[in-house]
Amino acid sequence: MESPLCVSIFLVLCVFIQSSAHGQSLGLGPFGRRPRAAETKKASQETEIRFLLFQEETDKGCQIRLNHPDTLQQCGFNSSLPLVMIIHGWSVDGFLEDWIWQMVAALKSGLAQPVNVGLADWLTLAYHHYTMAVHNTRLVGREVAALIRWLEESVQFSRSNVHLIGYSLGAHVAGFAGSYIGGKHKIGRITGLDAAGPLFEGSSPSDRLSPDDANFVDAIHTFTREHMGLSVGIKQPIAHYDFYPNGGYFQPGCHFLQLYKHISKHGLNAITQTIKCSHERSVHLFIDSLLHASMQSTAYQCSDMGTFSQGLCLSCKKGHCNTLGYHVRQEWQGKKSKKLFLATRAQSPFKVYHYQFKIQFINQLEKPVEPTFTMTLLGTKEENQKITITLDQEITSNKTYSFLITLDLDIGELVMIKFKWENGAVWTNVWNTVQTIIPWSRRPLYSGLVAKTIRVKAGETQQRMTFCSENTDGLQLQPTQEKTFVRCNRNSKKLKGNIR
Ligand SMILES: *[C@@H]1O[C@H](CO)[C@@H](O)[C@H](O)[C@H]1NC(C)=O
Ligand SMILES: *[C@@H]1O[C@H](CO)[C@@H](O)[C@H](O)[C@H]1NC(C)=O
User: Fold this and answer.
1) Which domains does the chain have, with CATH numbers?
2) Which ligand minimizes its atom distance to the CA of 364?
3) 204 annotated active-site
């Protein structure tokens, strides 16, 4: 994000959103696609918002029309199955985006129980200046609510069987549908995928998607990094469970250096792809949860990403963790939103395995120690290649350090850790000095640097383990020398006795 190219592309995005917000026109040239003329015809709302149903994975959609029950039959609506309706967001080019077809296909193929898959196509109302499109979200929400009420009346379809999935502005459309539907009961579920931030951040719950809008609301926040006081995705919690992958600011693989890779794949559209990358990641994380039934990502309740990165939040007690995506556990207590964090890979399958490592160091050197290590983790299934760890502070005295490690692979149960202290050139000199000054025979109990125990908690299995040095004569870590740690009992007496 530091290079001038990145900054300038980001400015384009921000200026675009801001000028749109002020109702000024801005050329779409930089976005690589020729805009289609806005359709400003005074058509009835019914033709401005199209509801499509998909019968097959590769279907282009069959339009259902309010008050025309025959269209339900024609489009294969099955009232004994749930309805999952996709709602797209703001449009910069007047076309339906590719992810919609991917989501339709995933919903059609990825579920054990079939569902009716629908789309609320409000392109003609979304392809406007941002403020106009925002204004239209209420109107579209009202229409979605009307459709659901009509389904209740005409085919006794229960609104609790409706799941709205809204992306960007579409998330707020879903919220408005939930609040405009009226009556005693609520819509079953709403999923907000990186709900739009500008003009919604900080607004009252009735003016945006909120937990009041459905029996269960979940949200995935993926692009909340602020630029010039504005973030594309909303930052504040808006659901019962709010998921913040990688902290929610920005997503791995979306750096502007990736632009060149995207150009070879998408041509000039690469710029749009790169800008949208983090925003749209919310969609792909959700699609991933449909396609990889055996690789569901777990997220953990935490106050912020800093705490999460220390590995301090990997608890599943009292509903403190949940599954990201379609298969989220739909339970919650109270009105308060829960903020959940997780790390992900840069591409599908996005799942990683989370571990908290706690290492107790005893440093009896006069000098602070450079905190760079490598570890190789051996599990019952796999061995993980070297991981480099740099603690955020130098090791100065006796202290336990806690940090988060994530693995792409399922290594099974962790059985052995090979630990190596990577030295800088400076360190080697210090070490040599220490060796010379302190005669071997009169060395203190702990001399040099000792890693006493390594305690590990696996988030995905909730297992806790303690590891001790395999070789108990000489616990000192020596630069560049690999030490092997094996499972042991915490506070093992044997360990203490052998410390000399
Ligand atoms: C509707 O779905 C149910 C449950 O899967 C199935 O038994 C039934 O045959 C379906 N009806 C039609 C008309 O496809
Ligand atoms: C660190 O621990 C060792 C052994 O337990 C002890 O001798 C030493 O005084 C401690 N150092 C500090 C700075 O607490």
Assistant:
1) 3-342 (3.40.50.1820), 353-498 (2.60.60.20)
2) 2
3) no
